[in-house]
TrEMBL record, chain A:
Domain (ABC-2 type transporter transmembrane) ranges: 19-352
Primary localization class, coarse: membrane
Positions of transmembrane segments: 203-225, 246-273, 279-300, 307-330, 350-371
GO terms assigned for molecular function: ABC-type transporter activity
Localization per Swiss-Prot or TrEMBL: Membrane
Membrane topology note: Multi-pass membrane protein
Protein name: ABC-2 type transporter transmembrane domain-containing protein
Keyword vocabulary terms for this entry: Membrane, Transmembrane, Transmembrane helix
Annotated organism of origin: Aquibacillus halophilus
Lineage: Bacteria, Bacillati, Bacillota, Bacilli, Bacillales
Automatic annotation (TrEMBL), chain B:
Record organism: Aquibacillus halophilus
Protein name as catalogued: ATP-binding cassette domain-containing protein
InterPro entries registered for this protein in UniProt: AAA+_ATPase, ABC_transporter-like_ATP-bd, ABC_transporter-like_CS, ABC_transporter_ATP-binding, P-loop_NTPase
Family label: Belongs to the ABC transporter superfamily.
PROSITE patterns for the chain: ABC_TRANSPORTER_1, ABC_TRANSPORTER_2
Amino acid sequence: MKAILVTRLLHWRKQMVSLLFWLLLPIIATCMFVTTANQWQQDTQIPIGLVVEDNTAMADKLSQSINDNPLIHVEKMNMDRALIELEQHELDSVFVIEDGYQENIQNNSRNQIVTAYVSDMSLAFTPVKEAIASYVQRDAGSSRAAHIVDQMVQRYDVEKNWTWDEVVATSNQIREEEALLHTSFSFYNQVEPTQENKGVSIWNIWGIWATFAMLTTFFLFDWVVKEQQPSIKIRLSLLRMPFKSYLLRNWIIYLFLLGIFDLINFSILAMYFNQSFNFSQILAIVSFRLTINMVAFLFSLRFRTTFFYYISALPVSIFMAIIGGALIPVDGLIQRWAWVSHLSPFQPFLKGQVVSSWLIVLLVIFSIWYWRKERAYA
Amino acid sequence: MLKVDSLTKNYGSKQVVVDVSFEISQGEVVGLVGENGAGKSTLLNILATLIPLEEGSINYNDLNYGADHRKLREKIGFVPQDIAVWEDFSVKENMVFFEQLSWVKKSRKELRQLCLDMKLDQWKEKTKSLSGGMKRKLNIAISLIHDPDILLLDEPTSGIDLKSRKEIGSYLYDLAKHNGKTIIYTSHDMEEIISLCDRVYCIGKDPFYKELLEKNGKSVQVL
Ligand SMILES: Nc1ncnc2c1ncn2[C@@H]1O[C@H](COP(=O)(O)OP(=O)(O)O)[C@@H](O)[C@H]1O
Ligand SMILES: [Mg+2]
């Protein structure tokens, strides 16, 4: 093993710059991406008006929860002001926590808990409503209050000269068929928004990190392609150890190198974004590392030129990231076609699984590769 | 003593090596000639254990090619037809890289001396910037790191200048005559074959090489 390390270091010394670039890419790119995205997101929060007419602890808590939602910019105001701003499209929608909110929740009454006002220009009403409904639901402690908000929706018709009574009179019930859309606002690994990390939680930091980690792994594994050039392979086949053993030992060295960087990345990300972390997350990272190193290795074995390897690796890793839900939510897709969740090693990682079907299948293929006799004596 | 018996190798329906038998003893320099595609590289690759033996038998002293290929590899130095070195490494780094993975430990000094013996003195130079002749020398030097008994060279002097060719030729000749190495090598340069080889094997049906070499007083056996 020491000999392999010496030979690998000879290669690394030649590739210092690119090696460091790829090793540092995941952490730097994730931090930059998430920071920029949060900045942008804060500029594009949905403005809503919040009118709190109930003076109770529960109403306070609800208004706090809405306030903490990273996608929503809340302005507290009185009813008249709110409706004027809604008319002027300064607000996307207006929500009123009605007088008697706490009492009605506690009595399991469905009347006048939260009322929503919308205009024709309320683009983001549905997701905001879903989010608020989920908070109310949490307050209600069960699904008793499932459709509270839905039932209370008032259509605010900007074309008309309105009066309060007219608004109420022309109110429409909007019933949404879908269940409360938790996922509109969070990817996997959802972290409850808190005061400190407001604006961060909606980005799946680990999804973005995993995407860059996958890219890095593919690009660093070009060593397999280089060492399989026919002429070099002949030499490496005639050495003290069989060629496959040579590749396997190098693979282990890369596993350690990348594994160490993973743990460093993990601690930095956890601190930088105030994420909580625990031992099972570390196990999930180790399992993910093992998985993608096998993916990259078995994939690279198929290539004879680095050029074709690079241009094939790029779409493959992006496809896996997308289908695995690392970049955009894919819950809807998975609900419809369950098998989609098996298409990418990102899914189990983002769910925090340690043992996944990917890991097991790859371990089997990897072992078959290693133990199978080759036609040549290599 | 290397003993080859009724060796046959087909690629699909194409017969490349047909029922070949010969014996080579220690310290001999044997040339292998034939037109392109005759099967010279295939034969050398089989002797180097890179292509598995299918029909026939090969023995080196008491080692058998079917059973002991790992032990055989320790005894064989194979110089591939295509230059097989790390282009972005220096001469030194190439030598150290392959020494680490080789059967024997060699000091830097010994490795350097090996290169110097071949008149390859650009120790720190990047392989990329070496001349064709120097690259060929490095290609041979790497295969000699583990002091093999048998040296199989596939066109070791192709495409290089006369001076380097002479240097490589006389180095190989010394290895056989003073160090007792057995050398089998292919070449298209008949002058070189005539001046270096004790015996010549001709592979393929074309009588051109046989006639040319025999006119110059070489004993040629057709395989
Ligand atoms: N891996 C292979 N598969 C099929 N045919 C091959 C393979 N390697 C060599 N050949 C064929 O075998 C013949 C002998 O090739 P080779 O031994 O390289 O000849 P030489 O070295 O004398 O030029 C050629 O016709 C070549 O096309
Ligand atoms: Mg050839």
